[in-house]
Specification:
By secondary structure, the protein is α+β, with helices and mostly antiparallel strands. The chain contains 13 helices and 20 strands.
């Protein structure tokens, strides 16, 4: 998913130490209290069937459940499905559902609800429709059994069963894809949506009948506040409990005895998210591989993370982190070499004929724009470092800061030169969503793909297709390594770094974990000892 196109961490200010963040406590867990969480990035929708970004889908996990979920080692585990079985030929999957689960409106959850969601996705109006192509039929075998038949083996089909499930309600099925005002979020998840005001707040209350045990917290209030300085002021006045900090706030403003007496500081490193520059491969100059190679040589990623980003983030040299089990260790590290970058451009015919410091090829100046989220300081620091680096090779990069929603609209419609955003991996680190040629968004497919760069490589398409059908781990490992080499060689992205997200959490909250899946992954187990509870029903 494209996100913002999120963690391991530590309770110290050490970025990325990888320690467990559970806060030791001898108090007994207690129900009650409210978590107030302030964020500076809004969300597109509470309808998971139309959400195309991980920000929206991340919030949705609070009030929706899915058939399956990921455990802490990124393996598939049960959620609403109690068990699932795959046939020997890998063409039939049988889901047996948990019994006794109810929707937030009190109606029972059954296999017909799952079939309803699959029919909505099958209609082609949901971004998730791209995972549906391998499904031949699906049927409700009995009240708590669903059988899915595939037209060919597909490992990536499980992505469908990780999607949040919405309730059948009074709306006509077509209305699920209409305006947000017509959609009322009803799920089976741990929290119930009490109030939703777009671009302002979501108020959630505990689902006391939750099938996996009621959350300890009575309420979560998520407030959207565009100004990061305003969010930090709310921390200082104790009007918010959880907030992501800028790098400067984390390292300087928050690193005081007074602040630390009220808040625990964590560095949330998310192993599923990396930051990159995406190129529009139809751009007259950025479409040239040698130009993209020269740009890569001009960027010192180690210095960017060390200096511009204050010691945060881990540089990337390809589509996978180094600790990924199928990582190709033979891949060369990104080389910083300004001289080589200049030589490449000279070899392509670029020169500065008018002496203004910007290279030209024929009459085209080597310049382009980059879209950056206005509220994201990290992206601005990254863009400023890149712009300064590219000046050294005669390339001008103009920074354009826009609201997240506007950037997403431009990106999905491919109206950009370049952009800086995050990418969130699919559960199996599959590259289809971002790299397969069938995922290029266009008017004909309703702009429902994430290959917004317009990248095409038949060899990579073939490997991705083979990966989808392979359940043999040795062959999958081999394919992963082959794909890494192709993507890295073609430079359709400028790979930058794995995502860090420094956060502050009020010290009254216990059992706080940040893991590689999501800041919210275990929020149902967060609690406040009764004596420390601040808000009561």
């Amino acid at each position: 998913m494209l996100s913002g196109f999120n963690g391991c961490g530590s309770s110290s200010s050490d970025p990325g130490s990888g320690k467990d963040l559970a806060v030791p406590s001898i108090e007994s867990p207690a129900c009650g209290d409210t978590l107030i969480w302030s964020v500076n990035t809004g969300f597109q929708t509470l309808n998971p069937l139309i959400a195309s970004d991980s920000v929206s889908l991340g919030f949705c996990t609070l009030f929706y459940d899915s058939l399956l979920k990921l455990d802490y080692s990124s393996q598939l585990s049960a959620c609403l499905a109690e068990t699932w079985e795959v046939s020997a030929d890998r063409r039939v999957i049988v889901f047996r559902l948990k019994q006794g689960v109810t929707w937030h409106d009190g109606k029972p959850f059954t296999a017909s609800d799952v079939a309803f969601n699959l029919r909505l996705i099958e209609s082609g109006k949901s971004p998730a429709a791209r995972f549906f192509t391998c499904i031949d039929t699906f049927e409700v075998t009995d009240r708590y059994t669903l059988t899915v038949r595939l037209n060919s083996p597909s490992y990536s089909v499980f992505q469908l069963f990780l999607l949040p499930l919405v309730a059948q309600n009074a709306l006509n099925p077509d209305d699920f894809f209409a305006s947000e005002e017509m959609f009322q979020p009803v799920g089976t998840g741990p929290f119930i949506v009490q109030e939703f005001i777009k671009d302002e707040k979501i108020e959630l209350i505990a689902n006391k009948s939750y099938h996996d045990g009621r959350p300890y917290l009575d309420r979560i209030l998520i407030r959207i506040i565009p100004s990061q300085s305003s969010i930090f002021n709310l921390l200082k006045t104790h009007e918010t409990d959880l907030a992501e900090l800028t790098l400067d706030q984390f390292l300087k403003q928050a690193d005081t005895d007074v602040f630390r007496s009220y808040y625990n500081l964590y560095n949330d490193r998310n192993s599923f998210v990396y930051t990159f520059v995406g190129w529009n491969l139809t751009h007259s100059l950025l479409s040239r591989l040698e130009v993209r190679k020269a740009i890569s040589y001009a960027v010192d990623r180690e210095r960017m993370c060390r200096e511009a980003l204050m010691g945060f983030h881990e540089p990337m040299n390809g589509p996978y982190p180094e600790y990924f089990v199928s990582y190709d260790n033979s891949l060369p590290k990104p080389e910083f070499n300004v001289k080589k970058a200049r030589e490449i451009l000279a070899g392509e015919g670029f020169s500065d004929s008018d002496g203004d410091g910007i290279l030209e090829l024929e009459e085209n100046e080597l310049r382009f724009t980059v879209l950056v989220i206005a509220s994201a300081e990290k992206y601005l620091l990254t863009a400023q470092f890149l712009a300064s680096s590219l000046e050294q090779i005669g390339c001008r990069m103009e920074i354009i800061r826009l609201p997240y929603e506007e950037i997403m609209q431009r990106v999905m419609q491919r109206k950009f030169d370049s952009f800086i955003l995050n990418y969130t991996y699919a559960f199996d680190y599959n590259l289809r969503s971002l790299w397969h040629s069938s995922m290029i968004p266009s008017e004909t497919n309703g702009y429902r793909g994430f290959n917004v760069m317009g990248y095409t490589n038949p060899e990579l398409d073939q490997l991705i297709d083979e990966m989808d059908q392979s359940f043999d781990q040795k062959r999958r490992d081999s394919i992963y390594r082959e794909m890494q080499k192709i993507v890295t060689s073609d430079q359709a992205q400028l790979f930058l770094y794995m995502k860090d997200a420094p956060v502050a959490v009020d010290k009254r909250f216990r059992n706080v974990h940040q893991d590689g899946l999501s800041r919210l992954h275990r929020v149902t187990r967060w609690y406040v000892p009764e004596a420390l509870q601040k808000y009561r029903e």
